[in-house]
Amino acid sequence: MIDVFFRGRGYWYAPDKDGGTTALTTYRASGVFCLFEDDEIRYRHTKSLDGVIYLRPNLTHPDCELTKLMRRERVVSDLMDKYYFQIGLGIWTPTAQFAEHGSEAERFWIEYYRPTLVIAEPYNAVKGTGINSNNDRRSLQIKLLLSVIDKLKYERLNIPVGGKQKALVECLKSTSVFTSESVFNRVWSELSVDGRISIAEKENFLSIQ
Fold first, then answer.
1. Which residues are within 8 A (CB) of 149 and not within 5 positions of it... i.e. 6 or more apart?
2. Is the model's pLDDT at 153 over the cut of 90?
3. Four-point Cα dihedral 102, 104, 107, 109, nearest 10
4. Crossing angle of the two packed helices 134-151 and 163-171, in degrees rounded to 10
5. Which candidate in 24, 29, 146, 163 could, as Cys together with 12 as Cys, close a disulfide (CB 3.0–4.6 Å)?
6. What's the pLDDT score for residue 107?
7. Any idea what DSSP says for residue 154?
8. Listed residue (116, 88, 96) closest to 105, CA to CA
9. Which range, of 32-41, 105-114, 195-204, averages the lowest pLDDT?
10. What is the pLDDT of the chain when averaged over all its residues?
11. Phi and psi dihedrals of 168, rounded to 5?
12. Contact between residue 205 and residue 165 where contact means Cβ atoms under 8 Å apart
């Protein structure tokens, strides 16, 4: 996986209920993405990012642009790994009229429109507390698990027997959030101990819990 930093305007595409994608509104990004496979291969051979148009989220990176967006909008989706980003083409370019304003117009162009696409700082060198910190990552896992339970139309404190397995299957579809069944089980246990979820007739099915 090759991470890149992109700063500029473009469009997020989100999966829709019919199996296709829907373009969201124009968005100004400033964060980390990763390349699609074809662009990764081309970069390894050419060391050039010219021609890259589409980017995908790397949800494990502390500076992931999609994670920042989801936090800001307070949205949780179990399909975050299905989103992708299109770098804006022809959204705006400087004209002779803007050029007349000299350095002021140039600063405006650099700040808001001129895109920047470079190879990102290696992940293990990134400092700070982003999505990969324990607290933030666990928070995302909890939100995703609870949203899956709601999506399955279960009462959180009265989940039917077998509901945990169905929730597991759904959560593991988001491989960048739940990397294994053991991770899922730890999150499930934490929520159960905290009294936020419970299996129906739990006392009769402790082995499931």
1. 156, 159, 163, 167, 197
2. yes
3. -70
4. 120
5. 24
6. 56
7. -
8. 96
9. 105-114
10. 77
11. -60, -50
12. no
Dihedral angle, C-alpha 59, 64, 68, 73, nearest 10 °: -50
Residue 160 per-residue DSSP state: P
Rounded Cα distance, 99 and 103, in Å: 8
Map out the domains of the chain as residue ranges.
3-125, 134-204
How many angstroms from the chain centroid is the CA of residue 4?
14
The owner of tokens 């909008």 is 73
Q: Which two tokens stand for residue 170?
A: 């759904």
pLDDT beyond 80 at 152? yes
Retrieve residue 124's tokens.
């293990």
User: What's the rounded Cα separation, in Å, for the pair 39 and 24?
Assistant: 23
pTM of this prediction exceeds 0.70? no
Cα–Cα distance between 2 and 35 in angstroms, integer? 6
What confidence tens digit (pLDDT) does each residue in 6-49 have? 988 888 888 877 777 887 767 778 888 999 999 999 999 998 88
**Tokens encoding 153:** 């139309």
